[in-house]
Amino acid sequence: MSQELEELRQQRRKRSVVYYSLFSIVFLALSVYILVSLQSIILPIVLGFLAAYLCIPLLDMLRRNGIPKAAGILILFASIFIIIFYVSREVIQLIPDEKGMLELRVNLQYQLNDRYREYMGVEDFDGADEGNLFYEVFGDELDPMLQTINTFLMLDDEETEAFEEYREAEDEEGEPLVSNHTWHHYEQNLTDINQMDLEDDIVQVDEDEESEEELVEDEAADHSLIAAIINVASIWLIMPVVFLFILVDDGRLKKSLISLIPNNYFEMALTALDNVDNAIGNYLRGTFMEVLAVTISFWALLILIGFDWGVSLLLALVAGVANILPFFGSVVGLVIIALFALMEGHMGGINPLLPFIQPDHLLLWSVLVVLIVQLIDNIYFKPVIYGSAVDLHPLIVFLAAIAGSVMFGFIGLLFAIPVIVILKELYGTIHRELKAYFLIY
What we know:
Blueprint: H1 2-37, H2 39-64, H3 69-94, H4 98-120, H5 133-153, H6 157-168, H7 180-196, H8 212-236, H9 238-249, H10 252-259, H11 266-305, H12 309-322, H13 328-342, H14 362-386, H15 394-436
């Protein structure tokens, strides 16, 4: 009888192994399929979870001070909405209108070509000058890049006509809407384009000859743009819904997950969830503090070299948040700050606090600012502020970022490191607990 019972137990174990193995494979395949198919809603859902996760301690603090839970959730939701509204309003105010955008492109193109001539030691782009040693070595590779950027920045016929109309118009004081300084840049850009032989790359637009079919296509494009905007807005409405559901949930989601765990592994599951919770908390706190430190560093140094404080704050925020992206964030910050430096404070003026900083060399000072902040970040902020929150080898971080971006694009790049941190903590906890309960050797 005991032998038959033992045989039944062995058969049950085999069936259990087959059942759980098949279930795990199907669950993993289905999860990957869902993640790939629903990439567009992953970011709003995850951000909603993270925002709620960060607000849970604040909600507990409000409840300890006698504020009801519903009122606390309303206060947190309203605070986040006000912050987003205020930041968005400030960003929108910094976005130039049509005339400002045309001036921006003209000045940026001029500054780019002017700095290129200065740093390469050439007088013009007709190929007559040999340039300095750096240009002799790298000129053949850099010239096509410069021509590509000029092709992107130069005005087409329709934009040129609008720009010339702004030049002829006058403001309330009788001055031309386009300053003489900017108009000089525009004329120099035309000279540079002729020397680069880029006239054929300008898009020709003739509204009088535009066919009825093209008008229908333009109208369809406008409708598709409106539909795309509505679609994006509806997707991002998921974020506040997830945020509210998690705060109202009061731990029921966690209890539901725990209830799926067999009793034999109940304590191990609780330990794993607690450790993952601590790992996520450490990662978020470390990331937030590092972003704050990097942002403050950028803001102070950009103001020091002469950027307007509002523009400096916007650039610092972008560079600080971009720093979350491993390896690529620093490049994003460098490119954005360098572009604004090339425009010599076109968005707000340059007023250096240090007397030896000249606007003509603002690009070099801006690059130096990025290098200094990155050096401080790698030497002090990451090891001290991060601590052991992300105890991963740099090679693993790099490969995880590349793999995440290849599989899921920007979302994969953004969340590759926290996913690796969670998986590492899960594996380490489960492995230790299984050994502690003598379930594995």
